[in-house]
Structure formats: structure tokens, C-alpha cells
Amino acid sequence: MGLALAGAGLATVGTAPAAAGSYDCPSGYFCGWTGESANGSMWKTNKSVADLGGWDNKIRSYVNRTTSVACVYEDKNYTPWGGYWAQEPNSPGEYNGDPVATTSSVKFVRTERECSQPAYPSWSSETSPKALGFGDLNGDRRADVVTRDEAGRLWFSPGDTTGRLIGTGGWNAMSALTRHGDFSRDGREDLIAREASTGKLWLYPGTGTGSLGSRKLIGKSGWNAMNRVTAFGDLTGDGRSDLIAVEKATARLWLYPGTSTGTLGARKLIGKSGWNAMNALIGMGDVTGDGRPDLYAREASTGKLWLYPGTSTGTLGSRTLVGTGGWNAMAHFLPVGDFSGDGVPDLATVTNEKYVLDGYPGNLGWLVTYRGRGNGFLTSGVPTHGEWWGLNGFV
């Protein structure tokens, strides 16, 4: 689910048909020519160059034959504010056919987003007065975010606007990522992922420092038959985190209870039908203040947000409308606990192109935050940051 590029001074470039000169560029290099259509003298590099020196403002056409995204800047030192192009790798013979006369620096990155900013988003959270048992991978009582970028890497953001790499690659092989509390019974929050090619379910135990340990298989197969695989918290009341998922074929909602060994027990039906009508399930923690975890669900046809309260019998109670519409403008939901510092679970979202800001739609990649009120409802959303584009999921 890639997000399109957005931002001031940014342009993407297409490619032109093969030109004889473009074949002179060797595999693994970025090449530029003094003439259009890959003609004239050729310059090449396979490393980032902050100052083109004698080639400054002389490139009229170029080709990217590396495996990286080439950021082509109009200013030296990879400065994005003067304008830049993000060039994906070209096939042999292709070249950028648009005249380019202002190239001053070139940088190679894994994702287009990194041409102008870090691979991870800027995330800030306040210290909660109490540990909520989820949303906190490093145990500092500040809500964290884990981000998957378009290159399949995982980034950990501890709530101080910084981020660090915790997964070097391969995470795009997972068709579901979810976390909510401690499944492995060691007092640390864990992450669960579904492998798309096999339908297997994997547990990645948290280390307590924001990193993940060696994975453990907790679902041998069959999980591709399920939608909305969602870590939920302790619905059964036995002190162990549980998982819920919707069965695609029947639209039933199933509860998979956590066990003392860090696996999942025999499933229990908690929703008889109709759950395919929901295109997002959000394990919020206790938003009603009764000590039991609760569920938000988005209704696809209306964009409404519903609250399903957890009950003392390990089921869900009658639903309450908490969002009258407009929630289909959200591409991602981040139920990471209390990030406002008042002890009540909050909700963060990342917008898609349907989001309307200042009367205009098309505002994808905005972080919108909603504070929990403690009664199951949320305050009005606040758009806080517009640079959450070009990423591939959050937990």
C-alpha cells in the first residue's frame, strides 16, 4: 500500500524510449550526459555526490541503473528545498527524457521519502502516569510507534521524534502486523505478523528496549483465511493477551486466547456474522474505564466508527456509535495507548487522499491525533504532522 509522493519542491520523472547512448551506462551506476537523449559527454557514479564540481548544472539527461532510488537535487549537499527529482531504477536503455539543467548533487536511498527526510516519521508522545500494558516497547511509559517503510524495513520511534532501525528488511513479506501487550509472558510487549506466502502466524518477542527477538511460530497455516488480524489485549480476563480475527468466508469474528506458553488457544466465536462489513478493527485497550479492553471498528460503507465494549464474559457488548462519519479518510490506525499523558488510551491515524484539510481534499500522509475521553469517546481530531507519507504501515 504505497503512498504517493507529496511535498514542496518535489517532482517525479518519467522515462523515455531507449537511446543508443543510454546503453553506455554500466549496470550499478547513475549516469548523466551533457546533451539531451543520452548524448554528449557522460558522467557516472555509484556513490552519493554532494557537489558535482565541474559537472554542476551541466547534466541534460540521465539514467539510473542502480538498485536504489536516485535523488537528483537542484542544490548542492542534498538540499531538498530548492527542488529535486526522485528517480526509480531504470531498465536497460531507458533514460530520463526531460531536459535537466540544474543538477548539483545526487544521493542514493532505499525509498523516495528519504530524498527529503528520514525513513521514519516524526512521532512525539508524553509520559503516561501509569503503565497501560501496551503501546510501549521500551518500558518508559511513552507510547511508541513501529513503522514499516516501502523497502520492507522496520523502524522504532520511542516518542521523542527520533527513530532507529529494528528490522533490516523482508517485512513486506508480511500481510498483517499487530501488537497489543505481552504474549510471550515475559513482561514485555510483542509483535505478531502474518506471512503472506504461507499463511503462517509469527510471534516476535519484544526485548524491552524497542527491539525484537527471534521469532516463534504460533500459527502453522490457515491464517490467510482471516481478515483484520488484530492483537486485542486481555479480553478473557486471565491476564494474557488475546487475538481477534474475521473469517473471510463467513464474516464471523473469532477470539484466539493467549496461553501461558505464549501461543494461542482454541478459538471462540464472539461475532456470528456481518464482520466483513468492517474494514478496520482497532484494539484500543480500556477506553470506557471499566477495566476491560474495548474495540473500535470502522464500517466500510458509511465511514462510521463503532465502539464494541469488552465484557466480563470474554465477549463484546452492544455497540455504540463514536464516529458519525469521515473515517474512511484514514489509511492507518495507530492504537498505541496513552500518548497525551493523561492515563487514558488515545488514537492516532494516518490519512489517505480523501482527507479534507482547510476545505480541500487530497491530503494524504497526515498524522491526526484523537485524545481519549475515558468514556469510550474521542475528542475532535487534530492534524499534527503532514510528513507521514511514503510508508507502508504502522503498529
From TrEMBL:
Pfam families: FG-GAP_3, Inhibitor_I36. InterPro entries: FG-GAP, Integrin_alpha_N. The keyword Signal applies. The keyword Cell inner membrane does not apply. Residues 1-18 form the signal peptide. Keywords: Signal. This is ATP/GTP-binding protein. It comes from Streptomyces coelicolor (strain ATCC BAA-471 / A3(2) / M145). The lineage of its organism: Bacteria, Bacillati, Actinomycetota, Actinomycetes, Kitasatosporales.
